[in-house]
Amino acid sequence: MAGPKARADALLSEAYLKYQLDITKYCTVRLRENKSAVEDCVQETFLVYYNRLLKDEEFKNVRAFLYRTADNICKGADTKFIREAKKNADIESFEEVEAAPVDFRAADIDYDELRELLIAELSDDEQRLYRLKYEQKKSLREIGEILDIPPNAVANRTSRLRTKVKNLIAPIIEKHTKGGVML
Q1: Helix or strand or coil: residue 23?
Q2: What SS3 class is residue 177?
Q3: pLDDT on residue 104
Q4: Alpha-carbon distances, residue 10 vs 7, 15, 18, 135 (angstroms)
C-alpha cells in the first residue's frame, strides 16, 4: 500500500507548491480576509484533493479541481462566518427602542368572568358542546357518544362554534383596541 500513498504524497506536495498561493489569494477574496477561515479553507481544499488521490483518482486539470473545491468550501465557510458574526454581534450596534406603554385596564380584566359572559351568549346546545370540548377536553369521538351524533358532526358543530365565538369576540376587541393596542 506504500505505492499509492507515496504517489498521493508526491502529487499533493507538487500541487501545494504550485497552487497554494493562488488558492490562498482566492479564498482571501471570497472570505473577506478572515484569516482563520482562509487558512481552514486552503487546508481543507488540499485535504479533499489528497483524499481523492488516495482513492487513485486521476485529475486532468488539478488547478481547476482545486479552485472548484475551494469555491465550494468558501461558500460553506462564508455562511458559517455570517452565522458566527450574527451570533457575536456587538451590543452597541443595536438601536434602543422604547416599549409601548402598559395599559393597566387590560391587565385588570378577569378572563374567567369574560369567558362566562361569552358562554352566556351561546345557546344551550352550544354551551354544552363548548364545555365538553374546551373545559372537559373530550375528544370528538367521546363528545359524539355523549351527544349521540357521529364524530364528523361533532367536528362540524365545533367549527361553527369557533366561528360564532370569534364573531362574538371581534366587536369587543374592536371596541377596546385602537391600532392593535388594548385601551
Answers
A1: helix
A2: strand
A3: 46
A4: 5, 9, 12, 76
Close Cβ partners of 158 (under 8 Å, ≥ 6 residues apart): 129, 133, 140
0.70 exceeded by pTM: no
CA-nearest of 169, 144, 170 to 156 is 144
- 161 CB-near residues (< 8 Å, 6+ apart): 122, 126, 129, 130, 133
Say if residues 31 and 62 touch (Cβ distance below 8 Å): no
Q: In a 3-state reduction of DSSP, which class is residue 39?
A: helix
The per-type count for the chain, helices as H runs and strands as E runs, is 8, 2
- How high is the mean pLDDT in each 10-residue block of the chain (183 residues)? 82 94 90 83 94 92 93 77 57 60 55 79 89 89 91 93 87 64 50
